[in-house]
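S1.2 Input.
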Amino acid sequence: MAQLLKGKEVADALTEKISAKVEKLKSAGIEPALAILRVGENPSDLSYERGALKRAEKTGVKIRQFIYEESVSQETLLEEIDQINRDPSIHGVLIFRPLPAGIDDEAVRAALLPEKDVDGITEGSLAGIFTGTHRGCAPCTARACMEILAHYGIDLTGKKTAVLGRSLVIGRPAAMLAMEKNATVTVCHSRTGKEEMKNICKESDILIAAMGKAAMVDADYIKEGQIVLDVGINVNEEGKLCGDVDFDAAEPAAGAITPVPGGVGAVTTAVLMLQTVEAAEKTL
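S1.3 Output.
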């Protein structure tokens, strides 16, 4: 039976760490603050926002919300971001995307200072990950994978690691973060042949699945004793949340595995708060 890598345990440990950092910053006269910029009432955005508000309350991070109707103009959004950039009391910014039609996503991302980009959406933040300079922050989900491995004492040094997915939100940054921890990484994607992908996964010590395809990773992808991080959030035919990994098929062979729900996703809001606090620390 595989070890369950539960996200709540990781998030709780991070929350304790963040709270201590917040108290230290407050004693120095700095109150870490996160700006949440949301356009419209997308249910998934609202759900994540509620989770972020709860995590902020637990850690002591201050939240400032900037909420707009879907009819908001791009000019108004860009002006708001400029004001947030200039506000020294705001240390991090979360912008919910995708934005409504008619708003240039690239222009919005470009307007945000990488130093305040605690969700890893700007080119400056991504460049920081790829160059190792860490200007800005990694996308929260990608870093959540690394935080889970670290919490459970899983060393990536020399480990063959397969990353399924090449998005800028998870796949590519997760691969870079794993390489920074001395893993030997292979990235597979939608154009990788199915049999080749299976072979790469079967030869890997660690598997990070982020393809966005429900239960695509079955027992044929799993090596005995493998560490499996399932980043996927999908809804199956029965209307239930499931990951990219067929849990029932993979768990018997895996050495350790994250559940869905309750795995990687449970850690992301804690990482969001951690990166906000780290951005505040840089202002000292």
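S1.4 Remarks. The CA atoms of residues 124 and 131 lie 10 Å apart.
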